[in-house]
Design a protein that fits this description.
The protein is of the alpha+beta class and 765 residues long. Helices cover 42% and strands 23% of the residues. Helix 9 (292-344) runs antiparallel to helix 10 (348-358), helix 15 (477-521) packs parallel to helix 16 and helix 16 crosses helix 17 (597-610).
Length: 765
């Protein structure tokens, strides 16, 4: 391209640069990022005020060198930071490091620094630029979230301990221990209603106070001005962050707080269906902020404590009810976890592993089996995927089964009936006259109780899920419902996996068809005298994204060499088929007519319309022209016409590249009646011409101009190599990053007054 075009574009480039800078300022302000710039050759460090504030150096004098940062980086982090910096510089890569900084008030901040090493033309690291982000609050929130999650997990253990408690004292022991381990509290107490009025309205159970104080609060009146008493009577919760901030109504009880060494307190009611029956109180020797998660956990803790006490008071019946609720909660949790894990399963074996490990084990099952259709090759047959609980002989024996085989899992997969069998006798009763076969397999598998449920996909039975227990077992309604839920989730996962497998197989078939069609049409180039042609074709990396890219090179009737690169719109087998039609039409028109490129493309456009090809395409057609007179003078001409395609790249004998750019004509198949334009330029000996499809220069998220600039500069650097080597190097550089098919035709013109190179021309003259 000429210099005037470059100058005309310069103001736009400057404006774009200023726009990028403005965007950077807005982005960093919005993200609260600090910026820094380190000159590695001088050690000079430039950083903004936000970065200085993160380092706690806002009011410190600076030397302007990188050593300034070590003034306030935590001493324990300095070595690690230095190592990461050194490694980033050595590898000419990126920097990612997190460290603590010391603030003037003695506090610490956590800073996350990210940078990029810049190199000069020799590849030496000369600069590093980057950003700082204050992640103190983020890390604090993450730590707090982790602590909250850990506390919740410990609360599960507390629930289990409360479930095992057989007396009020045992509950108190669990509460006292949990108050310390879960909440970090110093004291805990249970304030319970006695059901009587008067002085003995409430009784207090304590474990962490001295005996004298415990005795003083063992019996309390209902109007005692303490938060725990009010919770036990009214059902209100109290979360007092410090004694000095307690509501006025509890002022008279301050002496009790002081005697117990309590500053902050949290109290939640203990309730039953009949109403409030007490309160759980935890105390702290210092202030306690009582965040919302803290309140929720204590409320949950109170609910668990209520359940434990109610269970004890209701004796055996309440104990069974509580344990059933706990089992139900665990099963529901497992159901959620199972659904999440099944979403990640990639094949049938992984589905079975998830169901076995995360699901049926809750029911006491030792093994599980997926009984599925054997596929088209085994009409009416079934295949079984079994867990390692079963002996290898059993797994082998049931791996392939006929549809009528006497096993509950086969019957469920064939008929859609569900079976919940408490023992072997129930399983044998399903298959009268064939009990021996069923019994032998149950014996070999060590199975007593079992269940088999059908797997359905879009209303059709596609298999079954069965579980086996090594003891007799009566299946409760809840267990049956849970197994139905497991089965439904399993069927959904298998349906997804089978659909993905079918899609991959279909995509592979489309890919094979399209590539076969394309490659059958991408013929070897001709060998005109003193011209060297090289061709390359690279399909896109994405499966089933085969498109309509093609190249062609042929000698027409007058002896001229024609070169074509085109791209039919679309990415499927129809696009590849349309490509074949257009390629053959163009080749035939050019060969028969001997016309110039503009006329050939006009005729192709008309043929595409008249023959109802039903597709559009970009095409660039180049003709190497040499009359006898021109041959005597050693001259050649390039004549071309461009139908919406990326322009050809011409590299002169001096190695300078330029695109043969003109306003391109409309795509083929759009408006055939619009005239097409022709262009020509001399083809000097030693020149290289490159025609290519847009897959070589287009990248997602990057402008086309960037790809064209890369191609021009790369080919300039390769102009002394052969065209074969140029094509190979271009494909090597794009590697597997191509998002569309790549077609390349490269032409090298050699002087005709010199001996013909071996690669330029026919084997014989």
């Amino acid at each position: 391209m000429d210099g005037s075009a470059t100058q005309a574009q310069a103001p736009d480039v400057a404006a774009a640069h200023e726009l990028d800078r403005a965007r950077l300022v807005v982005a960093t302000e919005a993200a609260q990022l600090g910026l820094w710039d380190w000159d590695l050759t001088t050690d000079a460090l430039g950083w903004d005020s936000r970065s200085r504030a993160m380092y706690g150096q806002t009011h410190m004098p600076l030397t302007g060198l990188v050593g300034d940062i070590n003034r306030t980086i935590h001493p324990d982090d300095q070595v690690a930071v230095a190592e990461v910096l050194e490694r980033a510089i050595d590898e000419r890569g990126t920097l990612e490091v997190e460290f603590r900084t010391l603030q003037p008030d003695g506090s610490e901040r956590v800073v996350y620094a990210r940078g990029q090493v810049l190199v000069d033309a020799r590849g030496a690291a000369v600069r590093m630029v980057g950003t700082n982000a204050d992640v103190t609050e983020l890390r604090r929130s993450q730590r707090q979230a982790a602590q909250d999650a850990e506390r919740l997990s410990r609360l599960v253990e507390v629930a289990r301990a409360l479930g095992d408690a057989e007396s009020e004292q045992a509950v108190l022991d669990v509460v006292n221990q949990a108050a310390t381990s879960v909440f970090g509290a110093s004291t805990a107490a249970l304030v319970l209603q006695t059901g009587q009025s008067g002085p003995r309205a409430l009784r207090t159970l304590t474990a962490s106070y001295d005996s004298g104080f415990s005795a003083s609060v063992a019996e309390l009146a209902a109007d005692t001005p303490l938060p725990a008493v009010d919770s036990a009577v009214s059902g209100r919760s109290w979360f007092v962050p410090a004694r000095a901030q307690a509501p006025q109504r509890f002022t008279a009880g301050a002496a009790v707080w002081e005697a117990s060494g309590t500053d902050a307190v949290g109290c939640v009611p203990l309730e039953s269906d009949a109403g409030v029956f007490g309160a759980l109180s935890v105390g702290f020797s210092g202030p306690q902020p009582w965040r919302e998660p803290d309140q929720q956990v204590l409320t949950t803790f109170g609910a668990l404590t209520s359940q434990a006490l109610r269970r004890i008071w209701a004796r055996a019946a309440e104990l069974r009810a509580l344990r059933a609720a706990q089992r139900s909660a665990a099963q529901q949790t497992a159901l959620v976890a199972l659904a999440q894990s099944l979403e990640l399963a990639e094949d049938e074996e992984e589905v079975l592993a998830v169901v076995t490990g995360g699901g049926v084990s809750l029911l006491g099952a030792r093994g599980a089996v997926l009984c599925l259709s054997a596929g088209a090759d085994e009409e009416g047959g079934l295949r079984a995927l079994t867990t390692s609980f079963f002996a290898e002989t059993v797994r082998s024996e049931v791996s392939q089964l006929p549809a009528g085989f006497p096993l509950p899992m086969v019957d469920a997969a064939s008929t859609g009936r569900a079976h919940f069998l408490p023992d072997r006798a129930a399983a044998l009763a399903l298959f009268p006259g064939r009990e021996e076969i069923t019994g032998a397999l149950y014996e070999a598998a060590g199975t007593h109780a079992s269940a088999a449920l059908p797997l359905t996909d879009a209303g059709a039975v596609v298999g079954s899920l069965s579980v086996a227990l090594d003891v007799e077992h009566t299946w409760t309604a809840d267990e049956q419902a849970l197994l139905h839920a497991f089965t439904s989730l399993t069927a959904t996962a298998l349906s997804r996996i089978h659909a993905q497998e079918a899609e991959r197989a279909a995509n592979a078939a489309v890919r094979r068809f399209s590539e076969t069609l394309q490659r059958s049409l991408l013929t070897r180039p001709p060998e005109p005298d003193h011209l060297h042609l090289a061709v390359r074709y690279l399909p896109a990396a994405t499966e089933a994204q085969v498109g309509g890219d093609w190249y062609d090179a042929f000698v027409v009737g007058d002896g001229a060499t024609s070169i074509v690169v085109g791209d039919v719109t679309g990415h499927d087998r129809e696009a590849a088929a349309a490509m074949g039609q257009m390629r053959n039409l163009l080749r035939g028109i050019a060969h028969v007519s001997g016309a110039e490129p503009a006329h050939v493309l006009a005729s192709l456009d008309a043929a595409v319309r008249d023959l109802d090809v039903g597709a559009m395409a970009t095409v660039v057609l180049v003709k190497v022209v040499q009359t006898p007179e021109m041959r005597l003078r050693g001259e050649r001409l390039l004549r071309w016409s461009n139908a919406g395609h990326p322009p050809p790249l011409l590299v002169g004998p001096d190695g300078r590249a330029r695109y043969l750019e003109h306003d391109p004509d409309l795509l083929i198949g759009l408006l055939p009646e619009v005239p097409r334009t022709a262009h020509e330029v001399p083809l000097e000996p030693g020149s290289t011409l490159l025609l290519f499809s847009d897959g070589l220069v287009e990248r997602r998220g990057a402008p086309l101009e960037q790809g064209l600039a890369w191609l021009a500069s790369t080919v300039e650097g390769l102009h002394e190599r052969t065209v074969e080597e140029i094509c190979d190097e271009l494909l090597r550089q794009v590697g597997d990053r191509v998002e569309d098919d790549v077609a390349i035709v490269a032409l090298r013109a050699y002087p005709e007054d010199e001996p013909r190179p071996a690669e330029a021309g026919p084997a014989t003259r």
